[in-house]
Amino acid sequence: MTSSHPPDATLADAGEFGAIAAFTALFAQSSAVVVGPGDDAAVVRVPGDVLVSTDVLVEGRHFRRDWATAEDVGRRAAAQSLSDLNAMGGTTTAVTVGLVAPADLPLSWAQGLAAGLAEECDLVGSSVVGGDLTRGDVLVVSVTAIGHAGGAPVLRSGARPGDVVALVGRQGWAAAGLAVLSRGFRSPRAVVEAYRRPEVPYDAGPEALLAGATAMVDVSDGLLADLGHVARASGVVVDLTSAALPVAEPLQAVGAATGTDPLTFVLAGGDDHPLTATFPSASAVPDGWTVIGSVSEPGPDAEAGTVTVDGSAYDGEQGWRHF
Amino acid sequence: MTSSHPPDATLADAGEFGAIAAFTALFAQSSAVVVGPGDDAAVVRVPGDVLVSTDVLVEGRHFRRDWATAEDVGRRAAAQSLSDLNAMGGTTTAVTVGLVAPADLPLSWAQGLAAGLAEECDLVGSSVVGGDLTRGDVLVVSVTAIGHAGGAPVLRSGARPGDVVALVGRQGWAAAGLAVLSRGFRSPRAVVEAYRRPEVPYDAGPEALLAGATAMVDVSDGLLADLGHVARASGVVVDLTSAALPVAEPLQAVGAATGTDPLTFVLAGGDDHPLTATFPSASAVPDGWTVIGSVSEPGPDAEAGTVTVDGSAYDGEQGWRHF
Q: Binding residues for Mg(2+) 5, per the UniProt record (chains A, B) (predicted)?
């Protein structure tokens, strides 16, 4: 990153247009971008119907500057919205960013954020095409992703009794990382890094669409909570098989060190952004996915919208609550 | 607005999903919406290239709850982004909303905000298709508009020497309203209302595109500031004719009462969201627009990017600074 501003410059020092110029220098524009940053609106070429999703990160609630670098926050802010399009079976073409920041925010931090946004977008060939920068007492990053899918988007409402449930990508790692950071530790490094920067399986959403996934959701609030959305929208019951859920070694280590059942990280943890989807049969599940359960009709023991574990209600923490 | 929540319920009482359900009940979906609120992303049918723009309002900086109703804030938040697409010659198809709100925000206020967003979107046939709700200490509303134009979007960079400059819509009214409110008054009512709810000339942008406008911008930061963007992007000088600028009677009244030259409201005021555009000739200017100036080559007296008034630099306030 080069800049004509001194290393200790703040956003106020750079001014609105100086700061915006410093960010946009970091945003490479793909061939799908007809008009990039700098006009009243950007213009983007999207083949077919447009997928759109907005997610917001708030300092102190979704990130802490002492726990993550500016680049990490940028990566995570972009990943959250890109993952939403992934969960429809789509790919992001462009993003816009709304940034609210205190006047004394170091310009270098804001540039780091912009660099992180650009890096994450680059993973799927998308571009940061515009946004808004405004002053406020709380640091807020709002990211909107627009993009497209190579077929009918995969909704939450298509799961059918007899389908299998499958998972792709790391799940529970970020929650384990957060548990560690909350206790003042910085290791195991793998889970702390997972909390800072999700590794989103961006190829898996479009692959699942092509493979005939009947329903799909990204896990941002917790596996139980997000599969609950699928179960409710589809009018079905989802049952998970605990023995099939991947509980990686670092999660076991954090569980042992913190006196937590590591399965809790997997069932209730957010922020990793893996995908979970339902498929008509185990043979339809693409490589790289793990079958973790099945879909059934509602019945006397489980009403539509229920998610059970080994056939019973789960009685631990269900997931992340925003209010 | 009907709701199963008690009249004094807060967002925390309603919970994330209760609050979202209360909002989305207010969002009618147009036939362009393939998938509306409630999935990982919305799906919208946009004919041709996609215009996209994001704007953010922050409480205390862009609005005050004692100066405007929740509906007013919703109207203004949507208008800001819809106006950006208008300034490209386009129309908004759908918007997403990122809302950061304190837990004790009355649910009724948030519903009023949602109603205002829906009303403003309805003016152009667009729909609120999704968003994100999260807790934070400061009230922030981020709106992203996506849409399309019926031809090549009108950029800021196309103004040419010899073009005429024209304006459509009220300009300076919101600034006069803000001047009044800042002094603790509530009249003249017309300017106070203009500050609370801009009346955006949504038909004028697409009409200007069809009429062959060479450059266009919406006036959100001030006429001088926003025409400065056009002058810089186009490499030209813009000269305004003060006698041609409309200074309506309520602006004159506020000027007299506050000891302000009312032309200042017109030259430097923001928040009204009129359009200003350049056209190849006066005969190309559509009905309803007022010719307010002309475009010329840069020269020894005025470099590219300069906006002059009656041939000279203007030495009052230039416009709104975000940092």
A: 221
